[in-house]
Design a protein that fits this description.
Length: 271
């Protein structure tokens, strides 16, 4: 656990010594924004990493945490997938890990590579988010063609899983406008492959013309580890519902207070 921050990119005394001159050359408005961001960084926060994590080092923890705080200084909305991908890539690179985003933002498989490992990135930030149960509203698109989930869509999902090796989800559990709580959770690749032996059932109560289907993966105790939901709506997508976090790995958590940056957040007076 840590309460103080690193300074990404400022790896030499020269950079720090030049900072006062660089700030002095800025406009009044620019100085006001810098002052406001400094105040943001002084807000209470607690960043925690799993000591066993092979991805989130102390530096990665701080870099992502600071970016989340900057983001929420200007927005009450949770960090979305595209900014998260960029932030995660840069945080890993700054810690010396060979991370690289996929060449195409619409790549149907992995979103980034860390060395030779292909990683799929997800986000979750629904208002009714459950702390101990993960939901992915759109794991993948099911596409057009015949609608027969046991014979067509489930095999398509299992084939899709061969396109990446690890799965990470950035979850926003609390977002009040002043308080935020994020966590980075790894969904085991092997866990999702258990769907191959899941129980397929057709959803009888539906307003859709084409019946959606569920694939329930049992936990051996009378419940389910998770369920796949083959949504037959106009978008035709695969959802993951009620995936128990107890089967996953929490790499890090970020809890912090925040306020929206406004002109009055700083005096903004030229010295």
């Amino acid at each position: 656990m840590t309460q103080s921050g690193y300074h990404p990119g400022m790896d030499t005394k020269k950079h720090l010594s030049q900072l006062p001159l660089e700030v002095a050359s800025l406009t009044t408005s620019q100085k006001a924004w810098i002052h406001a961001f400094v105040q943001q960084f002084k807000m209470p926060h607690t960043f925690t990493r799993n000591s066993s994590s092979d991805l989130v080092t102390d530096l990665v923890l701080e870099n992502i945490g600071d970016l989340l705080r900057i983001h929420h200084a200007m927005s009450k909305r949770s960090l979305s997938k595209a900014p998260f991908e960029y932030a995660f890539e840069k945080a890993l690179q700054l810690s010396g890990q060979p991370a690289k985003l996929a060449d195409s933002a619409t790549n149907p498989g992995f979103d980034m590579t860390i060395g030779k490992t292909r990683v799929s990135l997800k986000t979750e930030a629904a208002k009714n988010v459950k702390e101990n149960a993960i939901h992915v509203s759109k794991w993948m698109e099911m596409g057009k063609g015949d609608w027969d989930p046991p014979k067509v869509q489930l095999p398509r999902f299992l084939s899709h899983m061969q396109g990446y090796d690890r799965i990470l989800s950035l979850r926003c559990l609390v977002q009040t406008g002043t308080h935020y709580w994020y966590e980075l959770v790894e969904i085991p690749h092997s866990l999702m492959l258990e769907a191959a032996k899941g129980t397929m059932t057709r959803a009888e109560k539906t307003k859709q013309e084409t019946f959606p289907w569920y694939c329930h993966v049992p936990d051996g105790k009378g419940g389910n580890k998770f369920s796949l939901y083959f949504d037959a709506g106009s978008e035709r997508k695969l959802q993951v519902k009620n995936l128990l976090k107890s089967h996953c790995v929490v790499h890090a958590t970020w809890k912090f207070e925040s306020f929206q940056l406004t002109p009055e957040a700083s005096n903004g007076e030229e010295e």
